Amino acid sequence: xxxxxxxxxxxxxxxxxxxxxxxxxxxxxxxxxxxxxxxxxxxxxxxxxxxxxxxxxxxxxxxxxxxxxxxxxxxxxxxxxxxxxxxxxxxxxxxxxxxxxxxxxxxxxxxxxxxxxxxxxxxxxxxxxxxxxxxxxxxxxxxxxxxxxxxxxxxxxxxxxxxxxxxxxxxxxxxxxxxxxxxxxxxxxxxxxxxxxxxxxxxxxxxxxxxxxxxxxxxxxxxxxxxxxxxxxxxxxxxxxxxxxxxxxxxxxxxxxxxxxxxxxxxxxxxxxxxxxxxxxxxxxxxxxxxxxxxxxxxxxxxxxxxxxxxxxxxxxxxxxxxxxxxxxxxxxxxxxxxxxxxxxxxxxxxxxxxxxxxxxxxxxxxxxxxxxxxxxxxxxxxxxxxxxxxxxxxxxxxxxx
Length: 402
Ligand SMILES: *Cc1c(COP(=O)(O)O)cnc(C)c1O
Fold this sequence. Notes:
CATH topology of the largest domain: Aspartate Aminotransferase, domain 2
EC number: 2.6.1.11
Keywords: Amino-acid biosynthesis, Aminotransferase, Arginine biosynthesis, Cytoplasm, Pyridoxal phosphate, Transferase
Distance between the termini: 41 Å
Number of domains: 2
Family: Belongs to the class-III pyridoxal-phosphate-dependent aminotransferase family. ArgD subfamily.
Radius of gyration: 21 Å
Mean pLDDT: 97
Shape: globular
Structural class: alpha/beta
Bound molecules: pyridoxal-5'-phosphate
CATH class of the largest domain: Alpha Beta
Oligomer: single chain
Number of strands: 15
Subunit structure: Homodimer.
Number of helices: 12
GO molecular function: identical protein binding; N2-acetyl-L-ornithine:2-oxoglutarate 5-aminotransferase activity; pyridoxal phosphate binding
């Protein structure tokens, strides 16, 4: 019999009762070091007192009014984000996929408003993940996510990630924009070759295309800058953000320059919940902490330390870990055994980390992770590697090691 909750997830049989910073506690009292972080969402960990206070203060006053009225918290948050990014304007959403939907609509509408209705196709990249709505599964191009859902929404042309020549070759008179993750998350924590984003920017400028970045996973401090594109000095025309921006409260945003947003006039887009007072109260509180002096320095310091220690673990356990990669605290362990085996072994050691494509285990700790917790994580990863090696000795798996 079907479960009451639609069974689209193979859920791990753990029930959590509460969280404390980087730790999750089950209903039967077991503690797990949480390097899943709600899939790069809980940038400030669990039950952060400052966020809890912001949410409960707002909850006592006003939850929801709709976008038919002004929402002061949203105006304030937009002004603050505008002050620290390329953006002149933004639309608040409830999720990443909705932020991407807004970005895709906006890119098409920009070309329409510029007198080019024929320019409505968007170049995307293999391994991309942009969400699970009909438009975003078409943009992502993952056959597994498209199968059975009828005709894929037209308008997306996919080329290999990191391949500037392929992107250039894919531009036609119908191209409106290029959509890319500065660092692919679900695709396996893939950092593109240096010069890739700069090259895409130049290509967009040359051909009159918009550069649309998906920073849903890599944004909001995750890579050690507020947004990942800052590392390479490239600014987009449009950018989708979500995950970390709400710290666990469902929230996203589509940021844009005034020029890119010029087609999005009165009545062209909307959302009942998007940017509601509860979300905006939490969003402002998240921003208070992420923009505080030293926050990003901490992310970079913890990243350096973690990457160093992980490189040593890889050297000691090459039959389990093939490569350590990523940026900031968006890190990936490409495995020499099935990545799912490492995920399981980590859980047996009391640590949670999600998988990704390309046989990768992701490490997505809350950005407030301490030096001590980084040390504990490395010990648990090492212990998980030993567990797997012991099993490999007991029952060698043909072809599992590289
Ligand atoms: C998670 C994710 C999305 C989709 O976000 P949802 O909130 O699940 O809709 C889009 N793009 C990237 C890069 C993501 O990691």
